[in-house]
Amino acid sequence: MAELDLQRVQERMTHRMFVVDVLRGLQAFTRGDEGGFRPFFAHGLEAAERAIASRASPYEVPSYAIPYFYGIALQAQGKEDEGASYINRALGQLQAYGMKARHSTLVQGRRRFVQVLREWTA
Questions:
Q1: What is the pLDDT of residue 1?
Q2: Is residue 30 part of a domain?
Q3: Cα atoms in the 13 Å half-sphere on the side-chain side of 79
Q4: pLDDT of residue 53
Q5: C-alpha span between 17 and 114 (Å, rounded)
Q6: What is the sign, positive or negative, of the torsion defined by CA atoms of 74, 80, 84, 86?
Q7: Is residue 21 part of a domain?
Q8: Nearest to 25 by CA among 8, 11, 46, 56
Q9: Domain of 61, in residue numbers
Q10: Phi-psi region of 4 (alpha: psi -120 to 50; beta: other; left: phi over 0)
């Protein structure tokens, strides 16, 4: 029977934990915490960059989620260009891996996500 590689398990969980950062960042944003949402995304963006650098597949590690939703939050704040750069980075990653369905879904949902965040924070 193979031994459990605890370090490998922890590394994999770390990569997946940045999805929690997306949720916590969006929660802080919708509560009107203009500055407080950024640290959650900053931590997640670092984890996403590490996952991308390690060439982890977005199928395994959804590293596109952090830049995408951070970009959505920035656009909801009216920071269109800054938000677009993060969103485009996420969409580019999906495109590079041939993840057409997710790419299409996020492209189509982009305006609606921004609209919903604006409504929740109005």
A1: 41
A2: yes
A3: 12
A4: 84
A5: 24
A6: negative
A7: yes
A8: 46
A9: 11-121
A10: beta
CA distance 4 to 49: 27
Of 81, 57, 61, 83, residue with least CA distance to 72: 83
DSSP codes joined into one string, 62-116 = -TTHHHHHHHHHHHHTT-HHHHHHHHHHHHHHHHHTT-HHHHHHHHHHHHHHHHH
Collect the ranges in the chain with pLDDT lower than 50: 1
Query: Which amino acid, one-letter code, is at 63?
Result: S
3 domain-assigned: no
Counting the structural domains of the chain, the total is 1
Q: Tokens standing for 102?
A: 């997710």
Amino acid at 59: Y
107 belongs to a structural domain: yes
